[in-house]
Design brief:
The complex is a heterodimer of chains A (304) and B (286). Chain A is mostly helical and 304 residues long. Chain A is 73% helix and 8% strand. In chain A, helix 7 runs antiparallel to helix 8. The two termini of chain A are 32 Å apart. Chain B has 286 residues and is of the alpha/beta class. Classes of the chains: A mainly alpha (304), B alpha/beta (286).
């Protein structure tokens, strides 16, 4: 392995270990899990819906919707005809309604959680590079044959790995909770939601925070930079999480049921595409920020 | 071989830290002494590739420190112990040394392990290797700093005040360790503790106001004070200001002053064998 890659891997390993021991990410994702479970409990306590849809059956001139009474578990049947029947999306026939509903309740629960996470990440992680100055370790690092580029890669990747793992573990915990409490969930859809939506936006925001925070001389200034990045967090959330929220199949089906010709899968793909398209400009800007910060740090080191 | 020619460093704001230093340092232990603010740390930071000189040339084993590539190459053969040493508080000693070894480019895990275990043994920290660094005393932290500087068996070692914070036994141990290592490498030792220089360096330079004011062996520096060191006993008052007071020792029957200069006859001064400290003080006085 090239020495530079070896050094990057070393920084990733030990930074991840130090992040674990500093407990910052554990606290962050702990709040994420507790917050989502708390929110679900809150929603449950104020829930007025008595019946949960279990199956939709399309017949020649009518649609039969079967429900389960949430309180008693007793089956309930509803028959729709005419215009009312036409409003029910056709793809409802091809999905397991119990899993579909549980999964989407879970994903919609995740959306506010991720939103809060996006706001919490920048102030908490912006300090990672200035911490080296606070520990007075920068001089040792500068005396090592370590390129500024590799140092930055190591720092950012270590946080990305920590964020990815933390997000994965907390998502699994919440999904397990939902599975136990409400019923089966579509694990594959949750993995896709995690990989396509949650992870990229979390990585984008943590990347901005670490890189721009790295320009600060002190930890405190870095935290202020992290706070200032809350505005960017809102923009990223607006282009991705909010987009996914309003374009999810549950809402599309209700809005465009009569004309919605797509399948469940195509609606999900559309939703993810919308979110990815929203994230791309921020990802491109992150590359620009990365190059800029690398240039500034190198100029500082060269110019001193 | 370290070659420094007409080296200048002016900080932003116009402070001239170094003003035309010329030095050639070969294999062995080289001492750097001088008062606070003389420019020692600036010189060492330039030699470590941390600062760019304003003027002059510096070559470390053939690598030109004026270029980025040259500095990076020089860092591959460098061990550095800064005056203000920082450590990661949440890592233990073994982890910290492993991390530093990776950053120094020691790729093979087995080599790192072997070196770290040997160095922990050398600095007497094997038993505390799994303790987090935030629990270490000042002296223990210093020893870990020493160990990290020695990682990778560097050809050029820069140590800034290495024995500060060490107890006498540790100081002697560390001095001997450096002396043993100096046989086949260049060690640049900066210290305020003149005794460290006299016990371990065969060559030294004294820096004052950014200039080199002395270059030679400890014996040469001692020789500079020969005939100027005196002992004055029993004086009720301190010697006058024309003499440089090196030390005063309270005895049962009065006070014994060690002075440099030419004492008046009424002091009844007795000539003394000069020490390295006398030589340094005499040089500073001139």
């Amino acid at each position: 392995m090239d020495i530079g890659l070896h050094q990057i891997w070393g920084i990733v390993r030990y930074e991840a270990l130090m992040q674990w021991r500093r407990r910052t990410l554990i606290v962050l994702f702990g709040f994420f899990v507790v917050g989502i479970i708390g929110l679900s409990t809150l929603i449950d306590s104020s829930r007025t819906v008595l019946n949960r849809m279990t199956a939709v059956q399309f017949e020649a001139d009518r649609v039969v919707i079967r429900y389960e009474n949430v309180a008693t578990g007793a089956p309930v049947e509803q028959v729709l005809t005419g215009d009312a029947a036409a409003l029910v999306p056709r793809w409802f026939a091809n999905v397991d309604m119990t899993t579909f509903q549980t999964t989407w309740e879970f994903l919609l629960l995740l959306v506010p959680g991720v939103l809060v996470l996006l706001l919490a990440i920048p102030p908490l992680v912006a300090e990672i590079i200035p911490l080296d100055s606070q520990y007075r370790i920068r001089e040792l690092l500068a005396a090592a044959p370590l390129a500024q580029r590799d140092y930055l890669f190591g720092k950012v990747f270590s946080l990305w790995i920590g964020t990815g793992v933390g997000l994965a573990i907390s998502t699994v915990i919440v999904a397990g909770y939902v599975h136990v409490r409400y019923g089966p969930v579509d694990a594959l859809l949750i993995v896709r939601f995690w990989a396509v939506l949650m992870l990229p936006v979390a990585l984008i925001m943590s990347g901005y925070a670490v890189l721009l925070g790295g320009l600060a001389r002190t930890r405190r200034t870095a935290v202020f930079i992290g706070i200032a990045l809350l505005a960017v967090s809102l923009l990223v959330a607006n282009g991705t999480i909010i987009t996914a929220y309003v374009s999810n199949p549950l809402f599309v089906s209700a809005r465009d049921a009569g004309s919605a010709a797509g399948t469940y899968e195509s609606l999900i793909v559309d939703m993810f595409n919308g979110a990815v398209n929203g994230a791309i400009p921020f990802a491109v800007a992150l590359v620009g920020v990365w190059v800029l910060v690398w240039g500034v740090l190198r100029w500082k080191a060269e110019g001193s | 071989m370290i070659a420094v020619q007409a080296l200048k460093k002016t900080y932003r704001g116009g402070v001239h830290a170094l003003d035309g230093i010329d030095l050639t340092i070969g294999t062995g232990m080289f001492g750097l002494v001088g008062p606070n603010g003389a420019g020692k740390t600036t010189l060492m930071r330039i030699l470590a590739g941390l600062l760019k000189p304003t003027g002059g040339t510096v070559r470390v084993f053939g690598h030109d420190l004026a270029t980025h590539a040259g500095r990076q190459q020089a860092k591959t053969i460098l061990g550095y112990l800064p005056q203000e040493l920082g450590l990661y508080p949440n890592l233990n000693a073994y982890e910290f040394l492993d991390y530093m070894a990776i950053l120094k480019g020691i790729v093979q895990g087995a080599v790192r392990r072997r070196q770290i275990e040997a160095l922990l043994e050398q600095v007497n920290l094997t038993d505390a290797a799994s303790r987090k660094l935030k629990t270490y005393s000042g002296g223990m932290k210093r020893r870990i700093g020493v160990a990290q500087a020695l990682l990778g068996d560097p050809r050029f070692l820069i140590v800034d005040e290495p024995t500060a914070g060490l107890d006498p036994e540790e100081r002697v141990r560390f001095r001997n360790l450096l002396s043993d290592m100096a046989a086949d490498r260049t060690i640049l030792l900066s210290t305020h503790i003149v005794e460290d220089i006299s016990q371990s360096c065969n060559d030294l330079a004294v820096i004052k106001n950014g200039r080199s004011v002395f270059r030679g062996s400890p014996a040469d520096l001692i020789g500079a004070a020969r005939g100027h060191a005196w002992l004055i006993r029993g004086a009720a008052q301190r010697p006058d200001e024309s003499l440089t007071l090196v030390s005063s020792l309270q005895l049962a029957d009065g006070v014994q002053y060690r002075v440099l200069g030419t004492p008046a006859a009424h002091y009844q001064a007795v000539p003394a064998e000069p020490t390295l400290e006398d030589g340094y003080m005499w040089l500073m006085r001139r």
